[in-house]
Amino acid sequence: xxxxxxxxxxxxxxxxxxxxxxxxxxxxxxxxxxxxxxxxxxxxxxxxxxxxxxxxxxxxxxxxxxxxxxxxxxxxxxxxxxxxxxxxxxxxxxxxxxxxxxxxxxxxxxxxxxxxxxxxxxxxxxxxxxxxxxxxxxxxxxxxxxxxxxxxxxxxxxxxxxxxxxxxxxxxxxxxxxxxxxxxxxxxxxxxxxxxxxxxxxxxxxxxxxxxxxxxxxxxxxxxxxxxxxxxxxxxxxxxxxxxxxxxxxxxxxxxxxxxxxxxxxxxxxxxxxxxxxxxxxxxxxxxxxxxxxx
Length: 295
Prior knowledge:
Elements: E1 2-4, E2 11-13, E3 24-27, E4 34-37, H1 45-52, H2 58-71, H3 98-106, E5 110-111, H4 114-139, H5 141-147, H6 151-157, H7 171-177, E6 184-196, E7 199-210, E8 216-217, E9 221-226, E10 232-238, E11 244-245, E12 250-258, E13 266-271, E14 281-284, H8 286-290
Antiparallel strand pairs: 1-2, 3-4, 3-5, 6-7, 7-12, 8-11, 9-10, 9-13, 13-14
Region (Disordered): 70-89
Keywords: Membrane, Transmembrane, Transmembrane helix
Transmembrane segments: 120-141
């Protein structure tokens, strides 16, 4: 049978049996238009032959049938192999027509497969959903961690900086480029020595101030004891009392060292971070120079 595309009027040759009894949705191989092709009234050529050969009147047809059987030629021997009886409905193609028949077959419209199409749509939807979730996690990292602080561990596991959102722009983006010393400041550093439980202990206290326009994550604090030649005698790092500090906020801190080196004369206190190091605050300790103080 011949199918004609309702969009581009391209004609296709199609075996009616491929449409089935109920018809089927087909697609044009040229313009990719899809439409529903209805099945023809009679799909089976054998059914047409049976209708055409049906006997009208047995009283008239029987004598003629007997006469035909009497004068019909004998059937060839089935074992001789010299005869070929094609089945009704088989299509015989001459050798010179084979190339044209191949071109005609290639021009058949594509039959849509609902199962494959549904599977493709399902996987595409899943990939789109996963990409959407990843995009949200990356774009709104700062908002997610501020609302749910435990998410910092998840970002650290994958080596991501949760404080750098991909959507940062304007003043917030400018803050990201500022060095740490322009965002956090050490105030009121006060070293002293005292005996605590009978042990000479160096006590260093101070404050951290957030001078940036947004909340800041507080890095560890590093303390270095220096001698008269500015050589390092002792270095240690400690964590501030809280993880984050609001804009304009101030938080006090204190650290202690038992049995400090007697040759220590200066103290350097700074933030300890591999990304950016704040300007060190050098403190000359009168307590170390003049000796220990008793409470």
